[in-house]
Amino acid sequence: MTLRSTLRRLHLAPVVLAAGLLLVPACVGFSAATTKPPAKQSPPLRLSAQQINQIMDFLKTTEPDVYGKAEMLRRSDPQQFDKLIAEAAPNFARLERLRQTDPKLLHLTLLDLADTHESFKLAGELRQPGLPPSAAQLLRARLKQVVTAQFDLRQKIRLHELNQLVKKIDELKAQLKHRETQRQIIINRRVAQLIGKPPSVNW
């Protein structure tokens, strides 16, 4: 069973949804030649033991190989395991925000992640030495099928994002028109706010 089909079937809790991005490694640039101290970073999102266990359960269901490596690291080097979870925290927070603001885009994003993983897996199998031509032909056909599906999926993502932008623009236009019709009322209210009490920034 592929990760894509599993994601379609699972009723994923908010915390578990965010675990999908653990499959995407964080890349951090570092220069040994610099003499400046590193920029102070915000503390990582703290995850409870329950959240970590839910993330591990997600990996166990969808990515047994990744789960096995994480479980081994959890037992042999808890500090490195905690570091892995901490590095994944920003992506966790991003997906959680996406879940709250745009569930449809979250669903499409997770499917795209699943296709990326499967395409990498198939490409890796195709690069194996001594692969029989018949097996290579089947793998190549499957890889093309996955890439084609991912292309169509990413078109859907872009169309969805475009529609969201158009919707936002329409809302801003409506707000602008409404404010213009209420011009004098808004101005008078703002003057009263400034005189009577500490002003609000939202006017």
Structural notes for this entry:
The chain has 203 residues and is mainly α. The chain has 2 domains: 82 residues, no CATH class; 101 residues. 74% of the residues lie in helices and 0% in strands. The protein is built from 8 helices and no strands. Helix 3 packs antiparallel against helix 4, helix 4 crosses helix 5 and helix 5 packs across helix 6. The N and C termini lie far apart (54 Å). About 13% of the residues have low confidence.
Helix content: over 70%
**What is the first-to-last residue Cα distance?**
54 Å
Q: What low-confidence regions span 5 or more consecutive residues with pLDDT below 50?
A: 9-35
Taken as a percent bin, the fraction of beta residues is: under 5%
Q: Whole-number radius of gyration?
A: 24 Å
Encode the helix/strand succession as letters.
HHHHHHHH
Mean of the pLDDT scores?
78
Strands, total number: 0
Largest sheet: none
Shape: elongated
Question: Helix/strand/pairing class, anyone?
Answer: mainly alpha
Instruction: Count helical runs.
Output: 8
- Total separate domains: 2
